[in-house]
Specification:
Length: 222
């Protein structure tokens, strides 16, 4: 990335982050969970599904299955039925059961705390690993580029790419590491409260005033 572009984007994302901090001074993840394993399950289920829907499903799921071993031992058909409403239920059920198996057999029943180890777990890609590391272990190795972060990064010209991995690299280059954790959560809340994905007039929204061109840029979904 050219030095002038880095400087321009650094100034813009700093202004955006300042506004987001004012709007959401204490951001928290929207998913409900009571331990690290439940967080992992919730994040796996959240792929292509709203957090509201995931919380509805996990409210029952976390009562039905209370240990990692119970997820590992659950028949595939039963797990599919339990997570059906989150969509892609066959693959998600398979990943959850596979994750439980690996965590028990390879990591002694504890969700690992490194990016390298997390990426070996079924259903865990870099975005999921970033969410787990930041929220469960306060380790900030990257930025979780979900649909919200991707959408706003493109709309506000913070990246040259559409691929989440390359967007993450661009954002990490223009943001201090101390800000990585909150950026994702604040944009999720902002998207819900002010600027949903469907095309609309958002010229008067808090962030659009910092970069009016964003009102004309509507990236396609992944």
């Amino acid at each position: 990335m050219q030095k002038s572009k880095i400087i321009e984007r650094t100034i813009r994302v700093r202004a955006m982050n300042k506004t987001l901090k004012t709007l959401y001074p204490y951001p928290i993840i929207a998913l409900n969970y009571s331990n690290t394993w439940e967080l992992l399950v919730a994040v796996i289920l959240s792929a292509q599904c709203t957090d509201v829907r995931v919380n509805m499903v996990t409210k029952k799921l976390f009562v039905q299955y209370q240990t990692i071993a119970s997820y590992r031992d659950a028949p595939q058909v039963d797990m599919e039925r339990a997570v059906y409403q989150c969509g892609f239920y066959r693959n998600k059920a398979k990943n959850i059961r596979g994750a439980a198996k690996i965590i028990i057999e390879k990591y002694g029943g504890e969700v690992p705390q490194t990016m390298e180890e997390l990426l070996l777990i079924p259903g865990v890609a870099r975005k999921t690993a970033n969410v787990i590391l930041s929220n469960a272990f306060q380790k900030h190795e990257g930025i979780a580029v979900d649909t919200h972060v991707r959408r706003f990064a493109i709309r506000f010209n913070l990246t040259d790419f559409k691929d989440p991995k390359r967007i993450e690299r661009d954002l990490m280059q223009i943001m201090p590491q101390s800000e990585w954790w909150g950026f994702n959560h604040r944009l999720v809340h902002y998207g819900r409260d002010y600027c949903p994905a469907r095309k609309h007039d958002c010229i008067l929204h808090p962030l659009t005033s910092l970069y009016p061109r964003a009102n004309t840029i509507w990236p396609r979904a992944q």
